[in-house]
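Because discrete structure vocabularies remain unfamiliar, we first show an illustrative case, written as a sequence plus integers encoding its fold.
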Amino acid sequence: MTLAKPQNWKFSSTRGSTEWGNRRDKIRPRKTALLFLSGLLAFGPGALCEAEEKAGTSSESVISRIALGSCADQKRAQPIWDSILRSEPELFLFLGDNVYADTEDMDEMRNAYAMLAKHEGYAKLRDSIPVLATWDDHDYGVNDGGAEFPMREGAEKVFHEFFSTPADSPVLQRPGIYDARYFGPEGKRLQVILLDTRYFRGPLVPLPERGENGPYDRNRDPSSTVLGQAQWDWLEAELRKLAEIRIIATSIQFLPQDHNWELWENFPHERKRMLDLLGKENTGPVIFVSGDRHMGEIMELKTSDPSSPGFSVYELTSSGLTNAGGGMKGEPNRHRVSPTNFQKRNFGLLEIDWSTREVVMKLCGIDGEVVDEYTARLGN
């Protein structure tokens, strides 16, 4: 689907191109159906062609089953891909920390991606369904990093190389990797918005003393940002487009307000701006999907909340595919509808019933067992 099965995969120096080593037939990598879920990767209509042929999925195909996950250390075993494949998704959302490459050396970062490409389970997945991807901090290049990272342009280039962004894609003409993808005809149209929460993000404010629920205070400087103005303008335009179901991918958690790790609430005015924008555009209920935390949970911002845009906003956090045990068991989260947070390896699953416009949000363990689920009601 996304790339031909790699053997000693390597990058050329030309942006957006790759080549395969130890192959007698010099297969060119397929153009991909990859997008960004917490930072976004754009593709023109032609980018999906070969993936569509491979997976039987096109931009007009109705998507009813989406798997998602984050935090996949390329140096660790990754048996969870087999469970994801058994769940029979039609689309996979890679939510960041797709590799762990905290480095300013772009060759080291390329090597990290090459190790991911060699994992058999991931190769099977990308050869069977479209994969839409975003980055978080460790595949961006620095822990908890933002706009200050000096190699952000280099990391962006490596990201596009690995995910084979077409040379004519508009995402290559602007900073950052945010984009959106649409599936299905009118009446069953799915919008997947992929946000870049790294490239433009302002400085984090450390607490005077790190607590058990994280190291960061709130940055209340109104000029500080998560998305940057250009991305905000783009997002507003995207939210005006027709879609019956909207999924917004953000590497860091959006809804929580009670912990002090990385999350949108590090910048309270930016979280408010997002909710205000959803209300202004009257989008109706949306689902955020996120990673980062090395644990999973399901949340709902209910209409009774003072910050509600006038309809429910849901979130499924799934982290991680290899790395788990983050946070504290039962850490505070006023918006959690899960019994507690799940601290073992996991992936997420969204099952869409188009007749009712209900989405069952599932959190699944490493063997595919459902450990938590909650129904999001997105109908009128």
In short: DSSP finds eight helices and 16 strands in the chain. Residues 96 and 135 are 4 Å apart (CA to CA). Residues 9-377 form a domain with the Purple Acid Phosphatase; chain A, domain 2 fold (CATH 3.60.21.70). The radius of gyration is 19 Å.
